[in-house]
Amino acid sequence: MAMRTTTESVSDAVQDRQRARTARGVGGRAAPGASRPSPPRRRRPAFALLGVLLIVGGAALAGLLALRMDSRDPVLVLRSDVPAGTEITRDILGEANVSSDSNLIVPSGALSSVLGTYAKVPLSKGQLLDTSMLVRTNPLGGGKHAEVAVPVVEGRAPDGLDSGDLVRVVRIGESGTPSVPLALALVLRAPVESGGGGVLGGGGDSKGSAATLLVPVDIADAIVDAAGNNRIGMSLIDRGVAVTDSDRLRNLAVTR
After folding, report:
1. DSSP sequence for 70-96
2. Whether the Cβ atoms of residue 162 and residue 122 lie closer than 8 Å to each other
3. Where does the SAF domain lie (predicted)?
4. Could you state, in order of their start, the residue ranges of all structural domains in the chain?
5. Phi, psi of 72 (to 5 degrees)
6. Which of 228, 201, 207, 217 is nearest to 250 (CA)?
7. What pLDDT digit, counting tens, does each position of 204-238 carry?
């Protein structure tokens, strides 16, 4: 009887140890519902290296783009307003550092290549010098055209005349004499306020100023005569005309 009791005690002890080991996952089958420990995650060094390369490459590309955007080169710029037909000289040019991919903008190192050229159109102060704005032919070359100064009197010409405007010049009639159209002319230099009365000021208390016109040479004397007698009137035909469009200039006077 004592032997049986001892055997049962030993069996119970063995079963208790087995249940304890099973609960710890050491041996035997896990109890129903018990979660298995997850297997260790495999590391993928190739993917980690690829991520690092992408980050480094992106940073390098961003730095290169920033350097290109901040790349500035010295180019030529106008130091003052330049009327159409004006010769380009060293004193009207300055230098500025800008970022531009245009091959028309003149670098400061190419200064000598533009000296002696002429402004094809009116240029503004601070404007970058562009080769498309220049012409090598003197607008007075060939003896076909002349520059004349004429009065611009209030009420006899449109307001806001500017360099590059194409105008119709008329000799104003008097004492029953009809007006006579003289020429289609190009405004080279916009009206500049004169110092007072007289011919260029319109005479007396008239408010006036002077403009420089490019006209056909065969009508230049008649325009100077009309200007000297304060009989000039103008009407606006077109704006932004280049000095190279000299075929638009015309002698309108009727010769008898």
Report:
1. T--EEEEEESS-B-TTPBP-GGGEEEE
2. yes
3. 73-135
4. 73-135, 141-251
5. -125, 140
6. 217
7. 444 458 999 999 999 999 999 999 999 999 999 99
